[in-house]
Amino acid sequence: MLKPYHHTPIKEAGTDEAGRGCLAGPVTAAAVILQKGFKNEILTDSKQLSHTKRDLLRPIIESDCAAYAVSHVFPDEIDDINILNASILAMHKALSQLKTVPRFIVVDGNRFKPFQDIPHECIIKGDGKYLNIAAASVLAKTYRDAYMEELHKEYPVYNWKKNKGYPTKEHREAIRKYGITKYHRKSFRLLPDQLELGLKL
User: Fold this and answer.
1) 200: number of Cβ within 10 Å
2) What contacts 24+ positions apart, CB below 8 Å, involve 93-97?
3) pLDDT tier at 195 (50, 70, 90 boundaries)?
4) Binding site members for a divalent metal cation
5) What is the rounded average pLDDT for all residues in the chain?
6) Rounded CA Rg of the chain
7) What is the value of pTM for the model shown?
8) Closest Cα partner for 71 from 57, 89, 53, 54?
9) Which residues are annotated as a binding site?
10) Which cofactors does this gene product need (predicted)?
C-alpha cells in the first residue's frame, strides 16, 4: 500500500500530469490534498490501473480529499513553450486553483519550477509511492480521457476515444491519410517522415 504523504500529513499537495507524450490534445495536470487519515487499497499510479478502476476511484478521491483541481494546457501553448514547460504550467495552474493553500508540494517526476513560496520535492515514480500523487495521476488521466472522448465526436477518424491522442499506429495512419487538426501538436514529430509529407491543416 502507498504511503499517505511524503513530508507533512497536513495540507501536502500531490501533483501529476497526463498526456505528455500525446500527438493531440492537451497536457492535463491535477493537484490533490488528501484528508488526514485517507486510505485506499486500490489507489496507485494511474498507469497501473484499469480504465474501470480509474473511473471508480475518481469520485472517491473527489469526495474524500480536502481539495483538488484539474487544469489543461492546450496544443497552441504546448507548441509555443514546449511540452516540459507546458506540463509544469498545467501543474502550477492546478495548484493555483486549490481552495486550500498547500504547505508542501510533492511532484511526480524530476522536473518542476518553484510554485509561489511553497517548498516542494520531485519524486521519481512518485505516483507509485504516495497516495496524494497517485490521486493526482488518476484525476489528470480521467479528466484528460474524458476530454479526448469529446474531441473524438468532432474528429472520429483518429479514434481518440480509444487512443486518447497517443502515437498509436492507427493514429499515425489517420494523420497520414487525413492530415492534422487544430487539436494536434504541430511541434511534435507526428509522422516519422513528417518533413517530406507536407501535412495539411
Assistant:
1) 7
2) 93/29, 94/15, 94/29, 94/30, 94/31, 94/69, 94/70, 94/136, 95/13, 95/15, 95/31, 95/69, 96/69, 97/31, 97/69, 97/71
3) very low
4) 16-17, 108
5) 94
6) 17
7) 0.93
8) 89
9) 16-17, 108
10) Mn(2+); Mg(2+)
